[in-house]
Structure formats: C-alpha cells, structure tokens
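Contributing new complexes? Match this layout with 2-hydroxyethylsulfonic acid.
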Amino acid sequence: MTKTALITGATSGIGKVTAQLLAKNNYKIILCGRREDRLNDLKQELSKLTKVYTLNFDVRDKIAVFDSINSIPENFATIDILINNAGNAHGLDPIQNGNLDDWDAMIDINVKGLLYVSKAVIPGMIERKSGHIINIGSIAGKEVYPNGNVYCASKHAVDALNQAMRMDLNPYGIRVGGIHPGAVETEFSEVRFKGDTEKAANVYKGFEPLHAEDIADIIHFVVSRPYHVNIADLMVLPTAQAAATILKKEI
Ligand code: NDP
Ligand code: 8X3
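Output block (do not edit by hand):
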C-alpha cells in the first residue's frame, strides 16, 4: 500500500531532496514549511509523480502546528512516516556573546517545534499501532564544538528525544530513529550566518561535504526497511570529516 510521509522543512536542503526522492518512489507526500511559494513550486513538480499536499506553518507556533495537522484531508490523514527535519543553526558565537533571539530560535524550532509536530502526529500512529518517526539530529547532537553551544544543546535534545520517543512508543509498534549528519551543503550555513553567502560558502571549501541527496538516500533506505527492522541511530559524515571540527581540507 502507498505510504504517506509528512516532511517538515521541505522547502530546502535535506527536506526538499527527501521529498523529491520519496515522491519518485511513490510515497504520498505532505510538504511543510514557511515559504509558501517554494511549497507550491515543489507541489507542482512532485504532483507529476505522486499525490502531494502542502501545509504552510511555522513549527514555533503551536496553535498553527495543531490546526494545520488537524486540517489534513482524509486521503492524506494516515501519516505513516513523520520526518522531523525542520531546523537550523542561528549564529556561531561564544556563549558570553550569544544573541538571545538566536537562542530562542534554535530552542523553539529545533526542540519545541519538533515536539509540537510529533505531539500532533503521534495520536494517529498510536491509534493505528503503526508508524515511523525519523528525527534529523546532527553531529552537533553527539559532540560539542566551540561556539556551537546552543545549537549543540538543541541537537543533544533531539538525540535525547529520539531515544525517549523510541521507548515511550515501543508498546505501540511505532518505529523511531535518528539520523545525525555532519557537514551537508544546503542553505544551513546561509541561515547560520544570516545571509552572508561568502561566509557560508567558506564552510564547505577545501573538502567535499555531504550533499542533501546523500542524506535523502539514507532516509529512503531507513523508511523502506521491512517492518521488523528499525534503524535507531545513524551518524553520517563526509569522508573528509572525522569529528565536528576535524576536517581534512585541501587548501
Ligand atoms: P536548510 O536551511 O536548507 O533547510 C531548513 C528547512 O527547515 C527549511 O525547509 C526551512 O523551511 C525549515 N524551517 C526552518 N525554520 C522553520 C520554522 N520555524 N518553521 C518551519 N520550518 C522551518 O537546512 P538543512 O536542509 O541542512 O537542514 C535540515 C535539518 O538538518 C535541520 O534540522 C538541521 O539542523 C539538520 N542538519 C543539517 C546539517 C548541515 O550541515 N546542513 C548537518 C546536520 C544536521 P522554511 O524556511 O520555508 O520554513
Ligand atoms: C550541522 C553540522 O557541524 O555545523 O548540524 O553542527 S554542524
């Protein structure tokens, strides 16, 4: 039977390419994000391949999250797969210089947003006693690096929540797994550096980073395993990266 996947952060990077790959593989897709023009463009592109529905909400807005998810029409309402991908880093400053708005954004989007969306989707999974939740963490959720403070804390929280969800949802046959990428070239660094494209491009100079396609391939692999297989935790790095700050760069 055709499965339905709800993907947060589907307007860019890992989420967008995952939507494209799952659409090619015949999953029905619910695309989520704030940038409505991008949602509409992607819907138009993917509708040639599969059935697509869009939800335009900010994961920080809990009323919008619940209203949006509760408004999903009947033919998309059975969410088999939830990909909790929306998230970003905001700033890269030592803790003493940290910007409070950046801190709020990272905690509110990466942690609370993931919780709100999960809370809205999980009841249907519990009722059906089936479902699969993929939480996109980060190498920043497995280790801490200088100036990464609050972003790392938010992704450590995602790692903890991934483990906690797997335990709490175990009685209901719901699979839960985390994927933790290292450096992936997306809009991530542009967001972190507030639109400074040169600074963002520099992050990926001198080595081959992961591409969004690499993570999308892995997400597709994870969600297409037979039901008795749950890939619980995966860290995926570019070959040039050994740890958050250990990169073999050709200069
Ligand atoms: P992008 O910036 O390319 O994509 C981020 C996505 O998140 C966008 O679709 C954006 O959509 C969405 N998003 C951001 N804020 C909100 C919000 N408040 N409400 C709803 N959606 C939001 O980055 P990536 O694809 O790289 O990031 C995807 C995930 O992967 C993130 O969780 C990130 O932390 C994680 N990650 C990324 C790594 C990397 O090196 N790139 C490495 C490890 C993990 P819109 O703006 O339209 O709302
Ligand atoms: C994104 C990768 O190394 O900037 O999560 O934290 S890193």
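Reviewers usually confirm one structural detail per submission. For this one: The first helix runs from residue 13 to 24.
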